[in-house]
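hey can u check if this looks right to u? its 189 residues, i copy pasted from the old doc so theres a chance i mangled smth
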Amino acid sequence: MSNIPGWGKSLLFASSYAPLYLVIAFQTQTVSYDFLGIITPVYRLGGVQLSLIAIASLLLSTISVVFLLAMIYLNRDDEGELLELDHYENRGDLVSEYVIVYIFPFVVLDYSQLSNMLSFIVLFVTVGALQTRSNRLYINPVLAALRYEVYKIRVDGEELLLLSKEHLKGEEVSVKTTAISEDVCLSTR
């Protein structure tokens, strides 16, 4: 699965914002927008009112996280290749940095305002276009919540990112991995 298609990369990026989608769904639960004379509906589902934006946010959260979990499950099930690490460094700080820079600023927006929602969409698409072309795509707070650690590793002079549920320790470390992109691998143990 090392060649994830573009739509898959977009879903992986979208999964990193899954907690924010829940915030948006909560904030817009009963909000109707008037966009160019079109008023977005609010639906009653099982005794709960949900706006079109809230439903879309909940669906995007669910679909993107299910895709992320499926990608991890299918790759962890792979037998993997044994890598002898020349060097490794825990880079859990990248997840904190990602949350502070790319997610937290959006939490404080008032999504009941159409202008804020449109601003979010423009910035989200821009950040998404940049992230899907980089290995930062795998710096994901949902993976951190699933107890995956991010390591910068060096193998035969090549630097890679490793996502692992195992905490690496010791001088001589070998890890069974599978490639999920050109420069990112996943521990299969």
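Residues 52-76 form the longest helix (25 residues).
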